Amino acid sequence: MTNIVVPQSFPDQLRNAVRAGLIASAIVGIIIGIVALIWPEPTLVVVAVLFGITLIFTGIYRLTMAFSAKLLPTGIRVFLGLMGAIILIAGIVCLFNPGESLVLLAILIGVGWIFQGIQEVAAGLAGAHYAPKWFLIGSGAFSIVAGIIVLFLPGAAIATFLIVGAILLVVVSVITLFTLPRAAEVPQ
Question: Domain of life, per the record (predicted)?
Answer without folding.
Answer: Bacteria
